[in-house]
Specification:
With 270 residues, the protein is of the alpha/beta class. It has one domain: Rossmann fold (3-Layer(aba) Sandwich). It has a seven-stranded parallel beta sheet, sandwiched between helices. Helix 1 packs across helix 10.
């Protein structure tokens, strides 16, 4: 009997936690650009009894993402997709961040929107940074929602983004916008798509951010939040399980902020 397919793009801390939480009884297709990391996580999950397939993917490449979607569909019904791959400001230039975090998400939404099974669902990992962006002009919001994926990086206001931190925030804000538009197309297949905006999560990527010049401000945000702690990959996996599961069948086209109360504290600080 063919198994349902869970596709997890990006095998960092959040991706691995999602695969572990949701992968039992399914074919888990793990994808990442880093083949060493991909192999290590696949081996660990397989050793714990998961049925794992792997695929190398460059999410900034339309052809690479298309081939991954085709691979997923060849394995069975693609019922769940979790896109966690991304670059943070300490990991690359503005150009690289936009290619992965902006274009990459748009390509995944397009290609997996063509293969997602009826009744299936997807989640894109955005960021609380997207909720900190000042309001954009309406025409820029519309452009981020509806411009064909391959043309996104050619938008005039996108080409002007040179600061990695601001490029990251705009890309994550765009993810939230793009999800809204994609929900209509996914809905035509009887499927749902949402995003999750994590706060500061304890992953190797966040540890590098904490060690960077913005580390003090991150610690200050944690201290002022309602929970007073960093999140864990398991916190994000739990939110993903909800959005991909049967209790969320009336939720699509929206963003779930999972930040321990950071944004609430920042926006209401006296």
């Amino acid at each position: 009997m063919a198994r349902e397919v869970l596709t997890v793009i990006g095998v960092g801390g959040m991706g691995e936690a999602i695969a572990r939480r949701l992968g039992a009884g399914k074919t888990v297709l793990l994808a990442d650009y880093n083949e060493a990391a991909l192999g290590a996580v696949a081996e660990a999950l397989s050793a714990d009894g998961h049925h794992v397939e792997t695929g190398k993917v460059d999410v900034s490449s339309p052809e690479s993402v298309r081939l991954l979607a085709e691979q997923a569909a060849s394995l069975g019904g693609v019922t769940q997709v979790a896109h966690t791959a991304g670059l943070s400001p300490s990991h690359g230039s503005a150009e690289a961040i936009l290619a992965v975090d902006l274009l990459g998400v748009a390509l995944v939404l397009d290609e997996f929107g063509e293969v997602i099974a009826p009744g299936g669902a997807g989640v894109v990992i955005a960021s609380m940074s997207g909720s900190m962006v000042p309001p954009l002009p309406a025409e820029q919001e519309r452009a981020l929602a509806h411009t064909p994926a391959r043309e996104l990086l050619q938008l005039d206001f996108v080409k002007k983004l040179s600061n990695p931190g601001f490029a990251y925030a705009i890309a994550k804000h765009a993810n939230q916008i793009r999800i809204r538009a994609a929900s209509v197309e996914w809905g035509r297949r009887g499927a749902r798509i949402n995003s999750i905006s994590p706060g500061i999560i304890s992953t190797p990527m966040s540890e590098q951010e904490l060690a960077s010049p913005v580390g003090d401000s991150m610690r200050a945000m944690i201290a002022m939040s309602g929970t007073g702690r960093m999140g864990s990959p398991d916190d994000i996996a739990a939110a993903t399980a909800f959005l991909l599961g049967p209790d969320a069948t009336f939720i699509t086209g929206t963003d779930l902020l999972v930040d321990g109360g950071v944004i609430a504290a920042v926006k209401t600080a006296g």
